[in-house]
Amino acid sequence: MRIITYFKYLNSFFTSLTFKGKKNKSQKLLNSFGKLKDTSFNFELIEKYFKNKEHTKTLQVISDKTCDDLDFEELFMFLDRTNSKIGQQHLYNKLRVISHEDGNLDVDEELIAQFTNDSDFRVEVQIELEKLNGREAYFVSGLFQEEHLEQAKWFFVMRLLSFTSILSLILLPFNPHMFLVLIGVFIINICFHLWNKKNLSTYSDSIPQLMVLKQVANNFLQDEQLKKLSPLLSESIKILDQVRNRMLFFKLESKIEGDFQVIFWSFLELFKILFLLEPLLLFGVLKRLDTRRKEIEEVFTFVGRIDALLSIASLRKGADCCIPKIDEENGQIKANKIYHPLLIDCVRNNITVNDKSILLSGSNMSGKTSFIRAIGINVVTGLTINTCFAKSMVIPRTCIHSAIRISDDLMNDRSYYFEEVLTIKDMIDNADKGTVNLFLLDEIFKGTNTVERISAGKAVLSALTRNNNRVFVSTHDIELTDLLEDEYELYHFSEIVSDKSVDFDYKLKEGKLKNRNAIRILEINGYPDEIIEEAIALATELDRNRL
C-alpha cells in the first residue's frame, strides 16, 4: 500500500510540474504577443527556402538590390513574430515575392482576426509551432528542394554483407566456425558504417524534423478553421505516412543521443554496424522521399502559412497598421499618415499620386530618402502581407525597382557612376515590359558633373513615367524641378535655420524648394568668414547667369 501511495504521489508531483510548466509557457506566449522577438537572426538559413524555390509564376521577385535599398533585413527583423523556423522561412519568402493576385485573402484575414481575438486558440497554435523552433527545422525544405544522395553502383555489396551477417547468426548454433565469418563481416561493416556517417549527418536534422512537421500539421487539421487553408492536405499526410516507419529510426537516433545512457547507445551502435542498418535505411528513406517532394512541400507550406498569419496578427497588435486597398485599375497611390516603421517617432505624412509621379527636393537630412524608403516599404508589405504602416493606404499592384544605395564595385573595377548607370538602365528596360512599375531613386546621376547630370536625369525621368509607371525621385538640382514640373508633382522637405542651429520638421510640403540654406549651415558651424563671403558671392553670380 505504501508503494502504491508513493507512486501516486510521484505521478501527482510530475503532473503538477507539467501543468505549471505549460501554464508558465502559455503566460509567456500571451505576454509576447504584439512584441518584437528577442532572438538572433541567421539570414543564411532563413532565406534558404526562398533561394531554392521556383518563382516563375509570380509578378515579381524583389531583387537583392531593392532589398538592400529598403534595409530589408532590418525590416524583416521588425516584421517577424513567427514561432517556428518553418514559419520564419515561409514569411521571408512571402515578403520577397509579389503575386499577380491576392489569393485566399479572405480566409487569411479571417484567421488573423481569430488569432487576435481568441488568445486561448492562439496560444495552443503557438505551442504546437514551437516544436519546430529548433535550428534543425531550417533544413526540412532541403528534403523537397535539393537533390538527394544517390546510391553508389557498389551499394549492393552492403545488402550482401547485411544478409551475410543475418545468415551467420542463424547458422552459428549449428556451425561454430560461422563466428569467424561473423567477425570478418563485422570488421568490413565498420568501414562502410563509418563511411556512411557523413551521409547520415546530412539528414540527421531534416528527417526527424519532417516527422515533427507532419505531426504538427496533422494536429492543425483537427481544427476546422485551420483546415480551410488546405482542405486536401490530409491526403498528402497519408502519403507521407507510407514512409513513417523507416523515418522512425532517425527520430530514435536523435533521441538516444540526447536522452539515453552511453551504454545503451553503444550496444545499439554495434547492432547497426553488424547489419549495416544506417546506410540501408537512409538510402531507402531517401528513395521514397524523392517521390514525395510535392506532398512534403504542401505540408511545409501549410504550417508555414499558419505561422506567418499568426506573425502578421502579432505585428498588427504591436504596430499602428492598416489593411491597404489594392487599386487594380488606376494605379493610384494614396497614403494617409504614412510612416517608416523602423524610425522611432517617425513623422507621418500624406500624399496622393494620380497621373503624375513625384519629384522631391530638399537639403540633406531633411527626410527625402527616408520618405522614399517609407513608400517602398509600405508598398512591399501592402502587396505581400496585406499590411501598411499608415492610417489608410491605397496602392497599385506593381513591381518595385530602386536606385537608392549605390556604391563602387571595386572588385569588378566599376565606378560609382557606372554602377548607377547599370542600375537605372535596368529600370528603363523594365519600364517598357507592360507591367506597372514603381521606381524609387535618390539623387539621380549624382556621380557625374552638373550639366550632364541634369540633362541625363531629365531624359531618364521622363522615360520612366511611360506606360503608367510611377516614380519617386529626390534631387538637389533646382533646374531639374523646372524641367520636369509638367510631368511630375513637386514636393519638398525643408529645415528651419536659426542663429545657432538647424532644425528639421520632416514634413512633406507641396511645391519645389525655394530657400537654400547650405551656405548658412556652413556659417553656423564656424566656417571662416572669407569662405562664407566667397561662397555667397559665387552663388549670387551663378543665379544671375542662370536667369
Task: Describe this protein's structure.
Strand 9 (437-442), helix 21 and strand 10 form a beta-alpha-beta unit. This protein is of the alpha/beta class. It is 57% helix and 11% strand. It has a 6-stranded mixed β-sheet, sandwiched between helices. Strands 3-7-4-5 form a 4-stranded mixed β-sheet, with helices on one face. A two-stranded antiparallel sheet has the order 1-2. Among the domains are: 1-30; 144-303, no CATH class; 325-516, 3-Layer(aba) Sandwich (Rossmann fold), CATH 3.40.50.
Which stretches of 5+ consecutive residues score pLDDT under 50?
256-260
Identify the CATH homologous superfamily of the domain at 325-516: P-loop containing nucleotide triphosphate hydrolases
- What percentage of residues falls in helices of 4 or more residues? 55-70%
CATH fold title of the domain at 325-516: Rossmann fold
Largest sheet: 6 strands, mixed
Shape: elongated
> In which order are the strands of the major sheet placed?
8-9-10-6-11-14
Q: What is the CATH architecture term of the domain at 325-516?
A: 3-Layer(aba) Sandwich
CATH class categorisation of the domain at 325-516:
Alpha Beta
Number of strands: 14
Question: Any idea what the radius of gyration is?
Answer: 31 Å
Mean of residue pLDDT values = 85
Number of helices: 24
Structural class: alpha/beta
Distance between the termini: 108 Å
Strand content: 5-15%
Domain DNA mismatch repair proteins mutS family: 355-540
Transmembrane segments: 154-172, 179-195, 262-286
Organism: Labilibaculum filiforme
Protein name: DNA mismatch repair protein MutS
